[in-house]
Amino acid sequence: MNPPQHISSRDNPLIKRLRQLAQDNTAYRKLGQVWLEGDHLCRALLDRGGRPLQAVFTEAGWQRAPDALRRACTHNTIVPEALMATVSGLESPADMGFVLALPAQTGLVPGQPAVVLDRVQDAGNVGSILRSAGAFGFRQVLAIRGTAALWSPKVVRAGMGAHFGLRLVEGLAPADLAGLGLPLLVTSSHRGQWLHRATLPWPCAWVMGHEGQGVAPQIEAMAADAVRIAQPGGEESLNVAAAAAICLHASAAAAA
To answer: What is the total count of domains within the chain?
Structure first.
């Protein structure tokens, strides 16, 4: 481990790059890097065998950091808390973060269980769905064009580390889903089998649609089946992230 470098200027090239990564939802695509803010995300990366390109600590964060975080990277930088605050996208800035090389974009894997995001807009919903996908054995998440950027800062924070165990593919067109070779399942509020009574195929691909418009007609026409989630409380519809968790759990339980 090299001695940490100290930076105090807000105009330093590293600080400018971190600010862009932390505050611009699509900067990761241009820069090929992701900013992981906070020790939870940093530990999650290490637990999955990932390694950062660079680690950045506040002065107090460096003093408190355990050896596992200090030694995770050969390039450590220490900045004043006030400078970290100019980088952070959080109301209460963290005292450390990692710079991660953006994983190479790869294509979808035929036959592998998948979650398809069809123009899901809210970053919190997308991150929550990624967590459910990882928890219930769906190792690839496929984003149709118009979906929130999968590696944007808010999605990464909402994913709570789920990103590091998933194959993530962005920018797909509906026609690309034919390459999965799997039955597509969609949810509906007005048609299809009741989920708790359905015989679910495995492996499969669940499609989660836009918060307001639902699944696009082109993709719905490709679906092998539609299911409904029982809502005895009478609400008009479920939040897409909640619906995804219910459906993915049902598939995992059926496949167990």
So the answer is: 2
